[in-house]
Specification:
The protein is α/β, with parallel strands linked by helices and 370 residues long. It folds into 2 domains: 172 residues, Rossmann fold, CATH 3.40.50.300; 190 residues, Up-down Bundle (Glutathione S-transferase Yfyf (Class Pi), Chain A, domain 2), CATH 1.20.1050.90. Helix content is 39%, strand content 22%. The protein contains 8 helices and 15 strands. Strands 2-1-4-5-6-7 form a 6-stranded antiparallel beta sheet, with helices on one face. Helix 2 crosses helix 4 and helix 3 packs across helix 5. The longest helix is centred in the middle third of the chain and has 37 residues. The protein is globular, with a radius of gyration of 22 Å. The two termini are 24 Å apart. Bound molecules: adenosine-5'-triphosphate and magnesium ion (MG). Magnesium ion binds next to helix 1.
Length: 370
């Protein structure tokens, strides 16, 4: 997958950007606060994912602007494609075109342009709280199975309704029986999510595990394990519409009294975690900073490899400020792993030993330099 052309205008501080990236390495340099990350973010949004920095759409539009427009032309293994996104502040309108055909939402773009983004926050993937890992795995699955993102958002919606109801039951304005209808929906969606997450984790364990062998020079073993709050063992479980929904439902019922007392749902995929062990012990609890960073890098690289395996298209790699955070051997490792892909790297200082297209970002303008 190769991005051929990027045009951005009115997106945050970027204006009149019109660049043709190189097929392999693209170095985006410039001083602080000039717009380097904004450029990465603009590309990332075209992959259908949410911004890695803000949740409000108006924040994406330039302070003094009414319209933000991003146009991208890229080539996958089959053909050339175009994505065009226009966001308007005053009307709150969003216009999304894929090859000229109107799309309902940005998430419809999932699976079209495949990108993997590394930000400094991603280095917390292993050390951070479970929700970071859940969101990561959900995003990974959505890139391969675009419908999955909708299932997750439905689950979150039902969960919110159920939690509101729990609170209303506690104060006596709703009845317990009203939970039944929400529980059934939560169980159905949750069983499906559990299966997909379990399978993805298993696969990621293989890919990321072998990358970890390499980064640790075979000295340590990393293993992943999907820890479900509902199912004891997810191996070979596939019947998410049948027996798994029943198990999920009975766990919700078992937790009911406690849930009402606490005012939130204590079991379900929103409480699950992906456990990362190094040599059999939890990296998060006992691992060193270096081990956790290596683990995080291997998870993200694993994401890229799985995308390639599943879709037969190399993803575009966006590296925002990550290299400067890494020591030499990890830096070399990451670069060697992605050398066959198109990459965009932001940096403040020149990076030695990497050659490729260079782009200078200055006050929201981007120009190619030699
Ligand atoms: N909605 C917006 N409209 C206009 N400018 C914005 C908007 N949101 C953020 N900015 C500006 O964008 C600039 C930051 O851009 P960005 O994060 O891309 O910088 P950067 O080049 O990556 O810097 P660093 O090297 O520090 O990471 C800031 O000056 C910020 O004020
Ligand atoms: Mg930045």
């Amino acid at each position: 997958m190769i991005i051929k052309k990027i045009s951005v205008d009115g997106f945050k501080n970027l204006s009149g950007v019109d660049i043709s990236p190189e097929e392999k390495v693209n170095i985006i340099c410039g001083e602080n606060a000039q717009g380097k990350t904004n450029l990465i973010e603009a590309v990332w949004l075209m992959s259908g994912a949410k911004s890695f920095r803000t949740t409000r759409q108006t924040d994406l539009i330039g302070f003094e602007r009414d319209i933000a427009k991003i146009d991208l032309c890229f080539e996958d293994k089959e053909r050339e494609q175009n994505i065009s996104v226009t966001l308007q502040k005053s009307t709150k309108e969003k216009k999304i075109l894929l090859n000229g055909v109107k799309q309902r939402s940005l998430s419809n773009l999932f699976g079209v342009l495949k990108c993997v983004v590394f930000t400094p926050e991603d280095l917390e993937l292993s050390k951070g709280s479970p929700d970071v890992r859940r969101s990561f795995i959900d995003l990974c699955i959505s890139q391969i199975k675009p419908q999955y993102a909708k299932t997750v958002s439905k689950y979150e919606n039902v969960l919110m309704q159920r939690n509101t109801l729990l609170k209303n039951i506690a104060i006596g304005i709703s009845r317990q029986e009203e939970l039944d209808v929400w529980d059934v929906q939560l169980a159905r969606l949750g069983a499906y999510i559990s299966v997909l997450r379990y399978n993805y984790t298993k696969k990621l364990g293989i890919f990321a595990g072998s990358l970890y062998d390499e980064i640790s020079k075979q000295r340590e073993k990393m293993t992943l394990y999907y820890a479900s709050t509902v199912f004891e063992d997810l191996e070979n479980q596939t019947d998410y519409n049948g027996v798994m929904t029943d198990v999920f439902l009975s766990e919700l019922e078992r937790a009911r009294v406690e849930d009402i007392r606490l005012g939130f749902t204590t079991v379900g995929v929103h409480r699950d975690d992906i456990l990362i062990n190094i040599d059999g012990i939890s990296a998060r609890e006992y691992g060193s900073q270096g081990q956790n960073r290596s683990a995080a890098l291997c998870l993200k690289l694993g994401q890229a490899y799985i995308l390639f395996e599943e879709t037969n298209d190399m993803p575009v790699i966006l590296l925002d400020d990550v290299l400067s955070e890494l020591d030499k051997s990890r830096k070399d490792f990451v670069l060697s792993q992605i050398s066959r892909m198109q990459i965009f790297i932001t940096c403040c200082e020149p990076i030695d030993k990497i050659s490729g297209g260079r782009f200078l970002v200055e006050s929201g303008k981007v120009k190619k330099v030699r």
